[in-house]
Amino acid sequence: IAWCAARKGLRTIVLEKDRAQWATGAAAGMLAPVGELDFGEQELLALGLASAGRYPGFVAELEAETGLRTGYAPCGALAVALNRDDAEALRRLHSFQRSLHLDAEWKNAGECRILEPGLPPRIVGGVHTAHDHRVDPRALVRALERAFEQAGGELRSDAPVAAVKVASGRAVGVELESGETVATEQVVVAAGCRSGELGGLPEEARVPVRPVKGQLLTLRGRAEAPALESVIRTLDVYLVPRDDGRLVVGATVEERGFVAGLQLLERVSADLPLRETLLWMTRGAINIMDENRDFLRLIIMEGLGGDESALEQYRRLVDLWESALTTVLQRYTEKGELQDNSPQAMARQVIYLILMAFQDTLMGRHVSPEAAPEERRQALSAFVGDAMNHLLPNPQTS
């Protein structure tokens, strides 16, 4: 919107809390109005199809103007069934898609593996939606930022908006959290799931949306491994390939709690085409959570809930992480791909990094941020010392 407005000669300013973070920074980039269709979403489908139809031209114009790639690919998507129950659910969805005259084709197990040779033998079928596609959200936003500024737009990435200023029923500007007021003739609210929380909006203008918790990992396989071509989905998780060989793994966890989310990587390793390839986390849960502090706090507070003492809760959380990671890594040891590292040792290394990333959040529940550094160090030592000794050899603990 901002790019198009600036190109038409309108003086345009974008006010952001952070540059390309939040949902954009953690999105997988699926453009799948057919593959992600659910029952009762016919009106949303019409909007999605219209948007998808404009995407190729939009991306081509953006890439030509900026010289930047967006990671866009009309690759198609394949929803696979891993058992008979999954197949029954997918067949119902496929019948619904066909009743709306959508391009969705049922594939048996062999046909699925012809499309994607890396799929496991135990799949029983799937639905191929040839006109679904994908994009790299971060790359897309980088290109949009450049195009917007080239067109004369002003981008402020450290300017969180507190409220919309309204006079005589019209938006006349916005007030930043810093107290600064930016006067304007028109305001476009594009704050995603936070749009309804802005101050100053009349009730009829508030968007009834809410955030939904999700999990995302970015993995990289060995160079000789067969790469995915399509977006792959099961009923639980999805895989979105990137042009540089990375693989985005995601799952939406809506009202399902913390433990369900932690099982994401294990579900993927059991269900989808990791096959004989060891996939390394390049930008996994630690960075995702670190960049989304609100989400990180939710994870920690859920993990440390209950009536037990803080240290007992903390140990319980650590044990859960260690168990989940060790189970996943054990699969690769059995294949002879982790000969020089025990699964438990690798799991502990990952947990150590998680603890370091989380220490400020953990400490915030037990000692004031204004406390003297020595007091904070002592509190940290008392709080996690036993857990660290349980996890790591003494030199690494130090």
- Count of discrete structural domains: 4
What form results from the Cα inertia axes?
Answer: globular
Q: What proportion of the residues is helical, as a percent range?
A: 40-55%
Strand order of the largest sheet: 4-5-3-12-13-14-11-15
Regions with little confidence, pLDDT below 50 for 5+ residues: 255-263, 269-311, 391-398
Spatial gap, N to C terminus: 51 Å
Largest sheet: number of strands, sense, barrel closure: 8 strands, mixed
Estimated radius of gyration: 24 Å
% residues in beta strands = 15-25%
Q: Give the SSE string.
A: HEHEHEHEHEEHEEEEEEEEHHEHHHHHH
Mean pLDDT: 74
The number of helical elements comes to 14
Helix/strand class: alpha+beta
How many beta-strand elements?
15
Oligomer: single chain
InterPro entries: FAD-dep_OxRdtase (IPR006076), FAD/NAD-bd_sf (IPR036188), Tet_transcr_reg_TetR-rel_C_sf (IPR036271)
GO molecular function: oxidoreductase activity
Protein name: FAD dependent oxidoreductase domain-containing protein
Organism: marine sediment metagenome
Keywords for this structure?
single chain, 398 residues, 4 domains, 8-stranded mixed sheet, 16% strand, disordered C terminus, oxidoreductase activity
